[in-house]
Amino acid sequence: MRDNVHAGLRYGENRAAGAIQTTGEQGMANEPITESTAGSAWQAKQVYAMAVICLVVGLAIGYLFRGSQSPDAQAKPAAAAQPPAHPGMGGHMPSLADMKQMADKKAAPLLEKLKADPNNSDLLFQVGNIYKATHQFKEAGSYYDKALQIAPKNVAIRTELASCLYYNGDVDGAISQLQQSLRYDPKDANSLFNLGMIKWQGKQDSKGAMAAWQQLLKSNPQLSADRKAAVQKLMADVQMQGKS
């Protein structure tokens, strides 16, 4: 049931490779500020490759609103939605190894900057974002962890680390990181939403999920109507699941 969590872990945001986002309403992200070095060729490859990996490993790339789909809708065979091969890949869909090479190439300029400024948490965060966008979760997590050693109270980075831990199978570690984020910012919407998703799908803890989402809605009254509705839909899904 990890598909729903992957979809939900992006609470209305898309932290694209190399992008740093500012926070608006209680941890909700605004539009990403992408590095000027991010060319259109990389962006095209990234979008295509993300779709491919979604099909290959069964991880649904998307936002909160896709996370509210029913499990049956997300369980449809991937073969029915195969994307066309990207011309930049010689007519072949990229493998995880191809994705790793793409990430390495994109991260190289930032890694050079880190040699001169190894304690720059923003640079470490950006490198982590690149590897996470290409589903290199172990590598991404290592950079997020390094960034947190420098900026331990950065909730956005810690939330990203939590999602990487989850994708790598460390459900308890992910929950622990989100709980730590909430100690620093008890109202952080991303942390509360992700905590609910992981408790529901990773621990089958429906009560824990409901408690997290109830706290999200209570502590973030400024959320837009569509986001509130999406959370409420998930809460209704949990309640229906409990009755079945």
List keywords for this structure.
single chain; about 240 residues; mainly alpha; Serine Threonine Protein Phosphatase 5, Tetratricopeptide repeat; two-stranded antiparallel ribbon; 2 strands
Characterize the structure shown.
The protein is mainly alpha-helical and 244 residues long. It has one domain: Alpha Horseshoe (Serine Threonine Protein Phosphatase 5, Tetratricopeptide repeat), CATH 1.25.40. It has twelve helices and two strands, in the order αββααααααααααα. Strands 1-2 form a two-stranded antiparallel sheet. α9 runs antiparallel to α10. About 32% of the residues have low confidence.
Helix content: 55-70%
Mean pLDDT: 73
Number of helices: 12
Q: What is the highest CATH level, the class?
A: Mainly Alpha
- H/E element order: HEEHHHHHHHHHHH
CATH superfamily: Tetratricopeptide repeat domain
Task: Summarize the entry for a quick read.
The chain is mostly helical and 244 residues long.
Ordered list of secondary-structure elements with their pairings:
Blueprint: H1 2-8, E1 19-20, E2 33-34, H2 40-57, H3 64-67, H4 71-74, H5 96-116, H6 121-133, H7 137-150, H8 155-167, H9 171-184, H10 189-203, H11 206-219, H12 225-243
Antiparallel strand pairs: 1-2
Helix pairs in contact: 1-10, 5-6, 6-7, 7-8, 8-9, 8-10, 9-10, 10-11, 11-12
